[in-house]
Specification:
70 residues, alpha+beta, three-stranded antiparallel β-sheet, 49% strand
Length: 70
């Protein structure tokens, strides 16, 4: 990775690797990357987030089964 300096423009990106269910809970596995204005990577990592598929259905005004979210 490269150094970040004041005034740098940073672009962060998250990519979904997997959507999965374990013990009735839903998870999204992500890879993370941040690049500077020269396109050089300054930070990278991974994350797992627990998600509620019902929340997306409520926001969009429709009901979907958890299986339909996968």
């Amino acid at each position: 990775t490269n150094q970040v300096w004041p005034g740098d423009n940073l672009d962060a990106k998250a990519t979904v690797l997997a959507v999965r269910e374990e013990a009735g809970q839903h998870f999204v596995d992500l890879t993370l990357s941040t690049t500077n204005q020269d396109g050089k990577e300054v930070a990278s990592g991974s994350a797992t987030a627990r998600v509620d598929p019902r929340a997306a259905s409520r926001r969009h005004g429709r009901r979907r089964s958890p299986a339909a979210m996968m």
